């Protein structure tokens, strides 16, 4: 079943979450029509490879064109209209930036996987629940409402200023007219009446000036309150959601809404600034005793400028954290001399700023790290922000060719650093720029979340563990000394993040039973883990009891095994994976002989094994576990084929496949049939092809079980033997002869 088919079967509350991240950037209609094709492409790799992204974009347009031809033949007018609109949209938005559509589709697929994983969980995790707090949603609506109200108030004040300007012009005209009259006419009744009228106008002007200044003051006060409270909280929440998304959590959104709020507030402040300038012009033409403009205007202008400074400084954000194209799901881990990408955005989107802001990137600026290692950035580290590269037209800049290079330090400094010390060092990528607009000059600075620098890819697992622990444990964006004394983490939250590693990296998260097994492995016993605090050392530095590796190294090796060798089986949910030997036997004990389950090895890194239940002649139940298969052996033979062809030779019996039903009672071929590379009876005969004079062969995994032993056993070497030849041998040779042949090793 395709991922999209699984999504369509979700409950309505999960479908509403899916609906939130499909829009005109990637229409859901295309996701639906091209579901199988879309899921078959590597969008993650394309999101950091422009050539690959361009090819995929072109192929996507070809697929859309084919769908358009189909609906045209069916004369479906509505579908024809929609597909033409979508084709035009895709061509217009992404032709100049194909990687952006790859990023969007990759994120959508990832978010679908996360929602599918969440739907399979009996209870929503604590972290995800906190991110979807109803109070937060209500605050978002309040912010948007208040910003809209402030914008309207500023525009209405514009009308008041215009009325005041017109009133003063009329006063100026009538006053000058009165002055032009002859001296002997000034005592006339008409003159006295005009002077009274002018006095009344002056009183009205004074009242209107005070009213306009009061309204401007209220607008400034509302902006100040909004920026100091709700909008700042919204921005901090977005940054926290970004942290969580970086370690596999829910896809973070809301930046476009924040951009709209920041931009409207900036426009309102500049509008108020122009209103104050207009009042200054009116002041030069008319002033009087008790005039409120010279008293209040300087204070209001100072406040407006202060708010603009703060607004701009808060609006300069890292939209996409540093990430190596080779490891798109491991952001903030950077390898020396390997390019990484990072994207910044200014949330104040004003046309006057397009291509006018140049951003400079540096590393470890004005900070002291916990080691003597120092780095510089090579490549293009100064670029201009623009509205053309982003599909949504945001004012942003993306650095795509930066490389960290380690500077030579004093002799011996590197040698004092242990393997964990390197991956616990945190560094900072900083960005600075200057905005010059309407007479204001504002210096802006921001920084990425802390990054870990590695010099060898073997350091990647522990470096990623550091990134997980940091972003799980703190919302401080710049605590570079964090690992001097790393805090403990709540076990329930850590388990939720571990499930995210599986949903984001290998397409299927962990259920409550699997998480319980991980909790027991971390704690060494069965515990109620809701409020349990786990140390950093126990997670990543201390070896598991009786093992020569840590918990995290063991788990990372399983992720790697799934990704490279058994991904389809994992996504289908047929690998129980995380189950102890004791629980395994409890599950299988009452099942039909030949029932088996698949679990990850607890003693071998990156190993998977299967255990089946059997029944002896006396009725006793026995269990058999095969030696774990690692990535080396799975590179030679697909795991589904191993399950299909696996044979056991008992002491007095012919070889047979003991695997009948996947736990609890799924026929083996029904579960794994679609993943077999070929059916045994489809192997070609000698005359059908292959090298002339040779019988085509396949690998068949065979194990031998002794009658007097029920201990777990090891599979023999894989025997190159075609199914047809094997069938002939069974007809003509006794089991003893076959067993002898299996046990003998050929001479070399």
UniProtKB/TrEMBL annotation:
One Gene Ontology cellular component: cytoplasm
UniProt keyword annotation of Transport present: no
Family matches, as Pfam families: SH2 (PF00017), STAT_alpha (PF01017), STAT_bind (PF02864), STAT_int (PF02865), STAT_linker (PF21354)
Domain of life according to the entry: Eukaryota
GO terms under biological process: cell surface receptor signaling pathway via JAK-STAT; defense response to virus; negative regulation of developmental process; regulation of apoptotic process; type I interferon-mediated signaling pathway; type II interferon-mediated signaling pathway
SH2 domain mapped to chain residues: 570-672
SUPFAM superfamilies listed in its UniProt record: p53-like transcription factors, SH2 domain, STAT, Transcription factor STAT-4 N-domain
Record's keyword terms, sorted: Acetylation, Activator, ADP-ribosylation, Coiled coil, Cytoplasm, DNA-binding, Isopeptide bond, Methylation, Nucleus, Phosphoprotein, SH2 domain, Transcription, Transcription regulation, Ubl conjugation
Compartment(s) of residence: Cytoplasm; Nucleus
GO-annotated molecular function: DNA binding; DNA-binding transcription factor activity, RNA polymerase II-specific
Main location: cytoplasm
InterPro entries: p53-like_TF_DNA-bd_sf (IPR008967), SH2 (IPR000980), SH2_dom_sf (IPR036860), STAT (IPR001217), STAT4_CC (IPR046991), STAT4_DBD (IPR029839), STAT4_SH2 (IPR035856), STAT_linker (IPR048988)
Membership in a protein family: Belongs to the transcription factor STAT family.
PANTHER family: SIGNAL TRANSDUCER AND ACTIVATOR OF TRANSCRIPTION (PTHR11801)
Protein name stated in the entry: Signal transducer and activator of transcription
Lineage, broadest ranks: Eukaryota, Metazoa, Chordata, Craniata, Vertebrata
């Amino acid at each position: 079943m395709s991922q999209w088919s699984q999504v369509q079967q979700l409950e309505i509350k999960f479908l509403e979450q899916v609906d939130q991240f499909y829009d005109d950037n990637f229409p859901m209609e295309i996701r639906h029509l091209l579901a199988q094709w879309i899921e078959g492409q590597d969008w993650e790799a394309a999101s950091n490879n422009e050539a690959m992204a361009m090819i995929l974009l072109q192929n996507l347009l070809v697929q859309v064109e084919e769908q358009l031809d189909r609906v045209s033949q069916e004369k479906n007018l509505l579908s024809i209209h929609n597909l033409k609109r979508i084709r035009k949209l895709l061509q217009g938005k992404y032709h100049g930036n194909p990687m952006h559509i790859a990023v969007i589709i990759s994120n959508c697929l990832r978010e679908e996987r996360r929602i599918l994983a969440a739907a399979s969980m009996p209870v929503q995790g604590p972290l995800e629940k906190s991110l979807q707090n109803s109070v937060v949603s209500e605050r978002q609506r309040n912010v948007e409402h208040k910003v809209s109200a402030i914008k309207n108030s500023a525009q209405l004040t514009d009308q008041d200023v215009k009325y005041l300007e017109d009133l003063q012009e009329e006063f100026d005209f009538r006053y000058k007219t009165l002055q032009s009259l002859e001296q002997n006419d000034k005592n006339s009744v008409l003159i006295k009446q005009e002077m009274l009228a002018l006095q009344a106008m002056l009183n009205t002007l004074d009242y209107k000036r005070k009213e306009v200044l009061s309204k401007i003051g209220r607008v400034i006060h509302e902006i100040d309150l909004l920026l100091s409270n709700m909008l700042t909280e919204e921005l901090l929440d977005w940054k926290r959601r970004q942290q969580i998304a970086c370690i596999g959590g829910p896809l973070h959104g809301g930046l476009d809404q924040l951009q709209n709020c920041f931009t409207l507030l900036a426009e309102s402040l500049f509008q108020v600034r122009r209103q104050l300038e207009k009042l200054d012009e009116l002041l030069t033409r008319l002033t009087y005793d008790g005039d409120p403009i010279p008293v209040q205007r300087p204070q209001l202008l100072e406040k407006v400028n202060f708010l603009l400074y703060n607004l701009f400084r808060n609006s300069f954000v890292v939209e996409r954290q540093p990430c190596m194209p080779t490891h798109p799901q491991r952001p903030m881990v950077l390898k020396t001399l390997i390019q990484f990408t990072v994207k910044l955005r200014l949330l104040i989107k004003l046309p006057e700023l397009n291509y006018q802001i140049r951003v400079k990137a540096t590393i470890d600026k004005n900070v002291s790290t916990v080691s003597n290692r120092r780095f510089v950035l090579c490549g293009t580290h100064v670029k201009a922000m623009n509205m053309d590269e982003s599909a949504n037209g945001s004012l942003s800049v993306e650095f795509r060719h930066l490389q960290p290079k380690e500077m030579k330090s004093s002799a011996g400094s590197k040698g004092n650093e242990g393997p964990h010390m390197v991956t616990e060092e945190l560094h900072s990528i900083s960005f600075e720029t200057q905005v010059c607009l309407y007479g204001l000059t504002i210096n802006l600075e921001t920084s990425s979340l802390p990054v870990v620098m590695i010099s060898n890819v073997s350091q990647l697992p522990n470096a990623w563990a550091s990134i997980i622990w940091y972003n799980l444990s703190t919302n401080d964006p710049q605590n570079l000394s964090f690992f001097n004394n790393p805090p403990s983490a709540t076990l329930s939250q850590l388990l939720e993040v571990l499930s995210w590693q599986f949903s984001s990296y290998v397409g299927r998260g962990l259920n409550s039973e699997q998480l319980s097994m991980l909790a027991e492995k971390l704690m060494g016993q069965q515990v109620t883990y809701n409020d349990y605090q786990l140390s950093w050392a126990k997670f990543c530095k201390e070896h598991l009891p009786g093992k020569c590796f840590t918990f995290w190294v063991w788990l990372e090796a399983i992720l790697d095994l799934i990704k490279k060798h058994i991904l389809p089986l994992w996504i289908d949910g047929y690998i129980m994976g995380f189950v102890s030997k004791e629980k395994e036997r409890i599950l299988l004990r009452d099942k039909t002989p030949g029932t088996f389950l698949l679990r990850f090895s607890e003693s071998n890194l990156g190993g998977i094994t299967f255990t089946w239940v059997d029944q002896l002649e006396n009725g006793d139940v026995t269990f058999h576990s095969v030696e774990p298969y690692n990535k080396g052996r799975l590179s030679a033979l697909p795991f589904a084929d191993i399950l299909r062809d696996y044979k056991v030779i008992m002491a007095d019996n012919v070889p047979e496949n003991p695997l009948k039903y996947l736990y609890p009672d799924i026929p083996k071929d029904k579960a794994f049939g679609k993943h077999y590379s070929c059916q045994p009876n489809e192997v070609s005969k000698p005359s059908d092809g292959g090298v002339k004079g040779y019988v085509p062969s396949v690998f068949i995994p065979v194990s031998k079980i002794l009658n007097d032993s029920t201990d777990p056993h090891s599979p023999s070497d894989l025997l190159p033997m075609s199914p047809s030849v094997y069938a002939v041998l069974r007809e003509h040779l006794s089991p003893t002869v076959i067993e002898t042949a299996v046990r003998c090793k050929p001479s070399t």
